[in-house]
Amino acid sequence: MLSRLIGLLQKWGDLDREYRRDVLSLFEPNPEGRLLDLGCGDGEFTLKVAEKMGTGSVFGIDVVKENVEQAKARGVTCYQADLDEARFPFEDESFDVVCANQIIEHLSKTDGFIREIRRVLKVGGYAVISTPNLAAWHCIAFLLIGWQPYQADVSDEFFWAGRLHSQREESMRSMAHHRRLFTLRALTQLVEYHGYTVCGSTGSGFPLFPARVARLASSVDKRHAFTITVKVRKNHSKLGTGR
């Protein structure tokens, strides 16, 4: 029952489409730029980012072999690696832009992940990091009635909200559950600790609201939106405070 409600909330507010639109808005035209997409999946969204930049120099990393093969078939130079464990297979200061879309919440070693992004970014380059929002109003509502927010997993085997429909179950088998969730304030403080300058942020989606109304609500109160995204820039090559 609850899983059906979750699906309806996401569909009603066009949450996926809205946050992807907002994430894309943070990328700048840069035809000569090199793009790295972390947790690139099958490469579909990677190519949308590349199109926004106007670049053909597109790289990706994903942990799932099938995703890597599909991304390669789309023209992405893709590598299979566990972002929670491995050093990225690239030299220092190799990329102008890094995309980390809905991946940091699946990782335990978030400090290492943020450091690796900074290592492979060129000075002046930027990263766009998007993740579910722990302070989203629906999470607050769940807590008020004494329930676990459904995006805050408690187990790798058990999904507390009940039996998921088959497609969701299959996808959950091939990826880690959520390890860490962030508020906009906490995500901002984390990247600043590691020496980045935050140069933009957005909030996307308010479940139960039609997309147009949710877009207005997100612009007014991004701290409680469904998804949060920050754009961070590497302004110097010296080690940041957290390095």
Which descriptors would you attach to this protein?
243 residues; alpha/beta; Rossmann fold; 7-stranded mixed sheet; 9 helices; 7 strands; 36% helix
Account of the 3D structure:
- By secondary structure, the protein is an alpha/beta fold.
- It has one domain: Rossmann fold.
- Helix content is 36%, strand content 20%.
- The protein contains 9 helices and 7 strands, in the order ααβαβαββαβαααβαβ.
- The chain has a 7-stranded mixed beta sheet, with helices on both faces.
- β4, α5 and β5 form a beta-alpha-beta unit.
- The longest helix is centred in the first third of the chain and has 11 residues, at 2-12.
- The model is unreliable at 162-174 (pLDDT under 50).
The CATH homologous superfamily is named Vaccinia Virus protein VP39
Name the overall outline. Answer: globular
Q: What number is the mean pLDDT? A: 86
Mind summarizing the main beta sheet? 7 strands, mixed
